[in-house]
Amino acid sequence: MSTTLWVLLVAVVVIGALAQRIPALRPYLEKESLAAFFLGVSSGFPYAMIGATLTTRLAQDGIDKKTVTAFTLAFLVYNLKVFWAWIVDGVRLPLLGRLGQRVSWMLVAGIAVIAAVINLALVDPTADIAATATAAILVGIAGATFDIVIDAYRIETLKPYQLGVGSGMSQYGWRIGSAGAGALALVVAARAGWDSAYIACAAFAIPAMITALLLGEPSRHRDPVEKKGLVEVWKSIAGPFAEFFQRNGAWLVLAFILVHKIGDTLANLTFRLLFDDLGFSNDEIAIYDVGVGFWAYLIGIFIGGIAYAKMGLKRSVLLALVLMGVSNFSFAALAAAGHSNLGMAAAIGFENTASGFGGVVVVAYFSALCDLRFTAAQYALISAGASVIGRFVTGTTAGAIIEQMGYVQFYLLTTVLAVPGIVLFWWMSRTGLVDAAMGTAGGGNDGDPETPH
Questions:
Q1: Collapsed DSSP state (helix, strand, coil) of residue 344
Q2: Calpha distance 174→180 (Å, rounded)
Q3: Helices (H), 100-223
Q4: Which residue intervals of 260-387 are DSSP H helices?
Q5: From CA 308, how far away is CA 64, in angstroms rounded?
Q6: Which of 137, 297, 108, 121 is closest to 205 using CA atoms?
Q7: Cα dist. 374→45, 108, 160, 242 in Å?
C-alpha cells in the first residue's frame, strides 16, 4: 500500500512538471479536476468493502456460493438511492448547513460510511450470517448516500468543457480508492484479521470530506428552494423525474441505461468466486487482480480521455461498449485454461483497460444528461439504473447459474448480454436522440463550451 502511494506521489510530481511543457496535460491539474480525483478515491472504497473484499472474506470463511452471490444484493441499495437523492438536493441540514448544502451533506455521509464500515468489521460471518448481511446493507445505504453527494459535487464543480477530463480523474480516484482499499484489506486481513482490515479501510472516506471543506460549495450549484409545505416537497421529489422524461427520447435513453451494463455487472461481481475456485492465493489475487488490474485501469482511463477528445462522445461511447462486452470473453478463456498467472493477468488487464476506457466516456455522457437544478436526484436515477438489472440477477441466480452451466458458459452468456446495449446506443446515435436528451450540465444553457457530442 505504501509503495503504491509513493508511486502515485512521484507520478503527480512528474505530471506537474510535464504539464508546464505540455499544454494538453494542464486540464488534469486544474483544481476542479483534482477535486474530482479525490472525490473518486472516497467513492470507490465502500464498493470494495461489500464487493470483491467481502466475497473473498465469505469464501475464505467457507460460506457456500449461493449465499456469497446473494450478498451482492447489498449493491441493490445503490440502485434504490434515487428514492432519497432528492433529500440531498433539497433538505438543508441544521447547524452544518451553514457550510453549504453539498459540503454539509458530504461530512454527514462520510461519517455515516465510516461508522457502517466499522460495524461490518465487527460482525462474524461464521457466527451470524444474518447480522453480516444487515451490516453489508448498512454499508450499502451509507455508501449510496455518499455517492449521491459525491456525484452531485463533482458534476457541479466541473465546467462543461471539463466533463471528459473530470470523469477521467474521478475514475482514476475511484480505482485507487477501490483497489487501494481492496489491497489493504487483503494484506491486513492476512496478518491481523478481517476486523482490523475493515477498520483500516474506513479512512478512505476522508479525502472527499477534506476536498469539500477546502473547496467549499461547487461553483455551479444552484441553491435549493426552501420547502414550506407538502405540495413543495412533492414537487422537489417529482420535479427531477418530470424534467428528465419530458425530453425527446428520454425513455429510450433510460432503456439504454438499464441494459448497457447487464453483462459487465453480472461478470464483475463473480470474478472472486472464479479466482477462489481456480485456487489462486490471496497474494496472487493482490498481485494480478488488484495490482495488474489497477495499472490496466489507469491506462484505460488515459486512452479513454484521448478517445473522448479525438472521437467525440458518441463514437467513443460506442467503442467502449464493444470493448466492455468483449472483455467478458477473456474470463471464459481463463476459466477454460485453469490456474494460470499469465492467463489471469491477461484477462484482468484487458477487462480493466476496457472498464477504464468506458468509465471515462460513459460517465461523461451520464453527467452531461443532468439538469443542474436536480443534479443529485437525476444522476442517482442514471447511475442506479446502470447496474440494477445485473446486480439483481447476480444476487438471485448467478451462483446457481455458475453451478449449473460452469464458468466458461457463464462468461460467454455475459458476453452475449452486452449486445443489446451496443445496438441501442448505435441506433440512438444515428437518429440524433443522444444529442436531443442532453441536460444543462452538458453546457446547453450555461454559456460554457459544450462537451464533444
A1: helix
A2: 10
A3: 101-121, 129-157, 163-192, 194-201, 206-215
A4: 262-268, 271-277, 282-284, 293-311, 313-337, 341-368, 375-385
A5: 43
A6: 108
A7: 26, 20, 16, 11
Residue 394's closest CA among 130, 54, 136, 73?
A: 73
H helices, E strands: number in the chain: 25, 0
Q: CB neighbours of 324 closer than 8 A, spacing ≥ 6?
A: 261, 264, 354, 355, 358, 418
What pLDDT tens digit does each residue of the chain (453 aa) get? Answer: 444 445 555 555 555 555 555 555 666 778 888 899 999 999 888 888 887 777 777 777 777 666 666 666 677 777 788 888 888 887 888 888 888 888 999 999 999 999 999 998 888 877 777 888 888 889 889 999 999 999 999 988 888 777 777 888 888 888 788 878 888 888 888 788 888 888 988 989 999 999 999 998 887 766 655 555 555 666 667 777 888 888 888 888 888 988 888 888 777 777 878 888 888 877 788 787 777 887 888 888 888 877 887 888 889 999 999 998 888 888 888 988 888 888 888 999 999 899 889 888 888 888 888 888 788 888 888 887 777 776 666 656 777 788 888 888 888 888 888 899 999 999 998 988 888 888 777 655 443 434 433
* Residues 6+ away with beta carbon under 8 Å from 67: 58, 129, 399
Counting Cα atoms < 13 Å in the Cβ hemisphere of 320 gives 30
Q: Are 185 and 282 in contact (CB under 8 A)?
A: no
Classify 227 as helix, strand or coil. Answer: coil
> What one-letter code names the amino acid at 357?
F
Compute the 3-state secondary structure of the chain and give helix, strand, coil in percent, each to the nearest 5: 80, 0, 20
Distance CA 295, CA 8 (A): 11
> Whose grid coordinates read 457530442?
453
Whole-angstrom Cα distance, residue 186 to residue 63? Answer: 18
Which residue blocks in 51-100 are alpha helix, DSSP H? Answer: 52-60, 65-70, 76-80, 85-90
Place of cell 444528461: 369
- Determine the Cα–Cα distance for residues 72 and 136; give it in Å rounded to an integer: 9
Reading the block at residue 398, the C-alpha cell is 448467478
pTM, 2 dp: 0.73
Asked if 105 contacts 93 with a C-beta cutoff of 8 angstroms, the reply is: yes
For domain 44-442, the CATH class is mainly alpha
